[in-house]
Design brief:
About 40% of the residues lie in helices and about 20% in strands. The strands form 5 sheets. It has a 7-stranded mixed sheet with strand order 14-15-16-13-12-17-18, with helices on both faces. A 6-stranded mixed sheet has the order 9-8-7-10-11-19, sandwiched between helices. A 3-stranded antiparallel sheet has the order 5-6-20. Strand 7, helix 6 and strand 8 form a beta-alpha-beta unit. With about 500 residues, it is α/β, with parallel strands linked by helices. The radius of gyration is 23 Å and the shape is globular. The chain binds 1,4-dihydronicotinamide adenine dinucleotide and magnesium ion. The site of magnesium ion (MG) has 6 residues, from strand 3.
Length: about 500
């Protein structure tokens, strides 16, 4: 179905280790989700490949990169941002082919956000500072002079998901590189191509060999080897809670630092006084952007009973108005899901929704065509204790739930194992702040969805993860604090 292919010149499929592109003993098949065809055979890194990449990262840390001052690290990050901008069209095509998303979407989010992230952290690179701290002195015998230093954590393993791979890789690379760390990046099996292209840009920008190594491969092989490796200091992971839990347990053996971003079941709370039109547009975007394969997707739509039928009907219409199809057709607003596995998973949840008694308002099936498509789907009258309200579906499926009071809305919003994001739709400033204070989520948006920015900390509460990425919090998560005391 897809008419576009990848020019060989834009296709990178090998491992990047110590500044060299090298083959692996084995490959895995990377598919085009829009028609199921083979896009590329990509190097499947082994434990030995991961080990070589970790050694290269350690050598760069002890060598050229470790000796690169902050201002020069910042200049390299700015150069990388320029190169991503230059290659925006190539990257958008790679993302659309690899993930199945409409080709215009990377230009709306992934690429500008990646560029902004590298620029934001370029700015921090020469501004990471410690403090001088007065103390009572040394055992009453001598005065002291104490100061703190923020040092890089060391070698960081970055494990990336397939939904917005370039952008999430940037969220890990930006702060880690600004703070002087080196990395081994493990892209997801379903979508490694944009990150491999980024590897060519990292080389072109002139980062010292071994600063960033990229080892695509299977999660249980390459990912596992990275998490187990004794010389990796930290794992930064974005993906499912199940793998996140496994990573944290495994990382405990070697006392690695771990940050986890594990998705959510984020509420969209439509209060009685909401601007309904704005809310419906924002909710539709929060459900259908990137096929709903978004960690912060606003999938539980809590609506005040006075607006309930209006919102249900409008969301059904918004779902039906989506144009499902070829990611390279300009009219398309909703592409394919990333894999047959994800399509099956999403269809399985839709069947559970029907079986558990929710009212199907729109969608609910796959079109009869090749590719891993699922129609945009809205369920109304959903019980918050049912499966489709509790589990992350990671597809274009919304669950609408009515409420009568603000207290009830807050109670339902928080009745979930997740806590990544929440949106509140209201025109009452006081109510906005009151509800924002009570919702347990790492990010609360009022009258908008996914108002993200590299300057703002990002991460979840509860099962949505541990730690924060981005902003100054991203620098803190990528540094160790050392105190130096001189007995005078
Ligand atoms: P996953 O959690 O299995 O994969 C994420 C990354 O972890 C991939 O790079 C994978 O290769 C790697 N991985 C897998 N096993 C590993 C291991 N033993 N050690 C180290 N790394 C390992 O996610 P999957 O199966 O692709 O998607 C399943 C569900 O996870 C989705 O339906 C969605 O609900 C959720 N998810 C959430 C994301 C988010 O942004 N928070 C992103 C992707 C998936
Ligand atoms: Mg793919």
């Amino acid at each position: 179905m897809t008419t576009t292919t990848i020019p060989q010149a834009d296709l990178t499929t090998n491992l990047l280790i110590d500044g060299e592109w090298v083959e692996a003993a084995e490959t895995f098949d990377d598919l085009n989700p829009a028609d199921g065809s083979l896009l590329a055979r990509v190097a499947a890194g082994s434990a030995a490949d991961v080990d070589r990449a970790v050694r290269a990262a350690r050598a760069a840390l002890d060598g050229a990169w470790g000796a690169t001052p902050g201002v020069a690290r910042g200049a390299l990050l700015n150069k990388l941002a320029d190169l991503v901008e230059r290659d925006a069209a190539i990257i958008a095509r790679l993302e659309a082919l690899d993930i199945g998303k409409p080709v215009a979407q990377p230009g709306m989010l992934d690429i500008p956000n990646t560029v902004a992230t590298f620029r934001h952290f370029a700015g921090w690179a020469d501004k990471i500072q410690g403090a001088t701290i007065p103390t009572a002195g040394y055992l009453g015998m001598a005065a002291t002079h104490s100061y703190t230093v923020r040092e890089p954590v060391g070698v960081i393993g970055a494990i990336i998901p397939w939904n917005t791979p370039l952008m999430i890789a940037a969220w890990k690379l930006g702060p880690a590189l600004a703070a002087g760390n080196t990395l081994v990046v493990k892209p997801a099996e379903d979508a490694p191509l944009s990150i491999l292209h980024l590897g060519t840009l990292i080389e072109e920008a002139g980062f010292p060999a071994g600063t960033v190594n990229i080892v695509p491969g299977l999660g249980p092989v390459a990912g596992q080897a990275l998490v187990e490796h004794a010389d990796v200091d930290k794992i930064s992971f974005t993906g499912s809670p199940e793998i996140g839990r496994h990573i944290q347990k495994t990382a405990a053996d070697t006392f690695k630092r771990v940050t986890l971003e594990l998705g959510g079941k984020s509420p969209q709370i439509v209060l009685e006084d909401a601007n309904v039109e704005a809310a419906i547009n924002g909710i539709a975007m929060g459900l259908f952007f990137n096929q709903g394969e978004v960690c912060a997707a606003g999938t539980r739509i809590l609506v005040h009973r006075s607006l309930y039928e209006t919102v249900v009907e409008a969301l059904g219409q918004a779902a039906d108005a989506q144009v499902l199809g070829d990611p390279f057709d300009e009219a398309t607003t909703l592409g394919a899901l990333v894999s047959a596995k994800q399509q099956e998973r999403v269809l399985g949840y839709i069947e559970k929704g029907k079986a558990e008694g929710a009212r199907l308002v729109a969608g609910g099936t796959s079109p009869d065509q090749p590719g891993f498509f699922v129609r945009p789907t809205i369920f109304a009258d959903v019980d918050n204790s049912s499966t489709i309200a509790r589990e992350e579906i990671f597809g274009p499926v919304g669950a609408v739930i009515p409420f009568d009071t603000v207290e009830e809305a807050i109670q339902i919003a928080n009745d979930t194992r997740y806590g990544l994001a929440a949106t509140i739709w209201t025109q009452d400033v006081s109510l906005a702040h009151t509800v924002a204070a009570k919702v347990r989520a790492g990010a609360v948006w009022v009258n908008g969805w996914a108002a993200i920015d590299p300057a703002l900390p990002w991460g979840g509460m509860k099962a949505s993860g541990i730690g924060r990425e981005l902003g100054w919090s991203g620098i803190l998560a990528n540094t160790e604090e050392k105190v130096v005391t001189i007995v005078l």
